[in-house]
């Protein structure tokens, strides 16, 4: 792996700039998927993390791999491991994206590292994304993408770590194939583990459809926004710990000490196992879509 890793590390420092129109229709699709009654219109600021629906990696059908992702290479290094997932992000919000505006995203590969996990070889790619419009910076994000070996055995249910039990706010989510399909469509995410049950089970070893990590993160930040609509979010980070599936409800939690701007967030499956670990920092009032 050393020679391969050295080659993959030649991608460090590569940059890519993209422009995107913040489409009213896509914003409306996201609002519908996340169950808001308000219809975002031109000039409306978008809630935190909705930027993940923009700047998708669009390739022709002939360039899509067996897993539904674009084939390897190009801006991202061609990691020779078949399974890929979004492992986590750290995001700072300067200003929100505005519907109807044009935004530039500049991405840079910060690091490529190999590790040995309990499921085999892992390769982590860390990226930085800077979003800005004509008025200046909007969002700064570091993203972790992990590549894994093929599943050699059936998925074993996670037994830990156990999620915390002290919380301030809580929400139950009942995932279903329609929710997962709609979010995949909103984000132009073709990964088959989110909508193709046979593929998810037979090829990647999962017992059911997998809930998107970014969807869970968005629902966590949404829990905060609904609970304290008079405050906005300055920063957010999340880490995927265990997968969530569409076969059972899961719960979102938020814990905030009185007077604190720090909020601890997590998602747990129906067995109380921690699946997503997150944190948010609150600041000034924000525009709130109505549920």
TrEMBL record:
GO molecular-function term, one example from the UniProt record: (3R)-hydroxyacyl-[acyl-carrier-protein] dehydratase activity
Entry protein name: Acyl-CoA dehydrogenase
Record-linked PANTHER family: HYDROXYACYL-THIOESTER DEHYDRATASE TYPE 2, MITOCHONDRIAL
One Pfam family from the record: FAS1_DH_region
Domain of life the protein comes from: Bacteria
Matching InterPro entries: FAS1-like_DH_region (IPR039569), HotDog_dom_sf (IPR029069), Mitochondrial_HTD2 (IPR052741)
Residues annotated as domain FAS1-like dehydratase: 76-139
